[in-house]
Design goal:
alpha/beta, globular, Rossmann fold, 136 residues, 18% strand
Amino acid sequence: MFPSPQDSPLVLVVDDEQSVLEEVASVLGGDGFRCTLCSSSAEALKKALAEPPELIISDINLHGHSGLEMCEAIKSYEALRDVPVMFLSGAQIPDIIRRSHAVGGTYYLRKPFDPEVLVELVHKALYMPHLAAASR
């Protein structure tokens, strides 16, 4: 657990299914993370620019722009370039994992997801880059 809510990492969760947003927020909140929830890529980009999160978790299939397009847009902003993006999706698209990495995605987890695996990948996405940078 983290010392206080203000010190807890902020995770921006993007999905157009309210039940998925609530489930991810419940799982991550139970592990000490703060979550901001968005149902569209446009809303997510606005919120990310207003308060940059430590991690973004997004579905691939969103209304409007896809999660892949959103990731490309996020990576185009200097303030958000280093924010890891993790995809959580049930998309059955050929090469989706390769495509998600090509636009800057860090991890891809299929729906329905195992809560323990989600938490493990969130910790890896948040802390592995810092460990690698510290060892240089």
